[in-house]
Design brief:
It is a single chain. The protein has helices at about 30-45, 60, 75-85, 95-100, 105-115, 135-145, 165-175, 175-185, 290-310, 310-315, and strands spanning about 1-5, 15-20, 50-55, 90-95, 120-125, 150-155, 155-160, 160, 190-195, 210-215, 225-230, 235-245, 255-260, 270-280. The chain is an alpha/beta fold and about 325 residues long. It has a 6-stranded parallel β-sheet with strand order 1-4-3-2-5-6, with helices on both faces. It is elongated. The two termini are about 15 Å apart. The model has no long low-confidence stretch (mean pLDDT about 90).
């Protein structure tokens, strides 16, 4: 997949491009159906599949007070769109100036002149441009006037749940990781560099942990303990993750601390990825280290049972193309 971050880098229109536009946060199954339609139409036309997205998320610019919580990082989004077999990804730097672009100007200057749109495929609720002028009736009329076809992909449901970024955020915040997986088509993942923590896990409790910093602005799962799959240096390990404030030790900072099974390496400063499989229990303040150790031992036992039951899925998710 070829990636553009500036329209000026597109020196000439693409060959018969089938184009889609969206934020694509999370690249959930609804987005994947959309990409599949784009790729299929481009193949039939012997043309190019093109996705246009924005960085940062437009709401961070036009509604910073809204506090949008993102499901995926920009890097994850690129990786996941590449897995959908899109030929060209255009990442538009979203600014206040760009937010004032009129929908007609975007169609004429970007879609037609710069990209050479042959077909446009959008989601059922898509709209763009200043004041969201570029809705579906507008796009269909533009297509009729200017010679490109507009197709609309209908809502995608899984067990009566709408595959949408809003629904995924809701489920993540509730710790409903099995339902999240149904809408994403993969496990929900957090990633980052391992940070130096309070170093209580190993010396005091006997359960060393790898610590990731979680910002209050990030999409944070329900506080508590999760069964995890940890991906480090191309290998996968089981684990248990605690997301919270460490109330037993009167903690004040939100953190994600993972005890990795059968693992004994120094990974401070190294990147890891953590797939969240199952919510085990909520965060709790214990009377002291001894009670906490007993509970962690039970968490580990419960997690190992979940991991054993999910062995087939875990093998698939650990393959290179799935561990993003």
């Amino acid at each position: 997949m070829e990636i553009y971050t500036d329209f000026n880098d597109i020196k000439e229109p693409f060959v018969k491009p089938t184009v889609t536009i969206g934020n694509f946060d999370g690249v959930h199954l609804g987005h994947q159906v959309l990409f599949s339609e784009v790729v299929s139409r481009a193949y039939k036309n012997k043309g190019t599949s093109v996705a246009i997205t924005f960085e940062p998320h437009p709401l961070k610019v036009v509604r910073p007070d809204f506090g949008i919580k993102l499901i995926s990082t920009a890097e994850q989004k690129k990786e996941l769109i590449a897995l959908a077999n899109i030929d060209k990804l255009i990442i538009v730097p979203f600014t206040k100036e760009f937010a004032n672009t009129q929908a007609a100007e975007f169609v004429n200057e970007i879609l037609i002149k710069r990209i050479g749109v042959h077909e446009l495929v959008v989601g059922y609720d898509y709209a763009f441009g200043k004041s969201r002028q570029g809705d579906i009736p507008f796009l269909k009329e533009q297509g009729r006037q200017k010679g490109f076809e507009v197709s609309v992909v209908e809502p995608f449901y899984v067990e009566d749940m709408l595959a949408s970024s809003t629904k995924v955020r809701e489920l993540v915040s509730q710790g409903r990781m099995r339902d999240v997986k149904k809408l994403l088509g993969r496990y929900y993942q957090i990633r980052g560099e391992v940070k130096l923590g309070k170093q209580r896990g190993g010396p005091l409790l006997g359960f060393p942990t790898a610590n990731l910093h979680i910002s209050e602005e990030d999409l944070c799962p329900q506080l508590g303990v999760y069964v995890t799959q940890v991906i480090y240096d191309g290998k996968c390990y089981g684990g248990v993750l605690n997301i919270g404030y460490n109330p037993t030790f009167d903690g004040r900072r939100l953190s994600a601390e993972t005890h990795i099974f059968d693992f004994n390496e120094d990974i401070y400063g190294k990147p890891i990825k953590i797939n969240l499989l199952r919510f085990l229990r909520g965060e709790k303040k214990f009377t002291g280290p001894d009670e906490l150790v007993r509970q962690i031992s039970k968490d580990v036992e419960d997690a190992q049972k979940v991991l054993a039951d999910a062995q087939k899925d875990l093998l698939l998710s650990c393959e290179e193309k799935y561990n993003r």
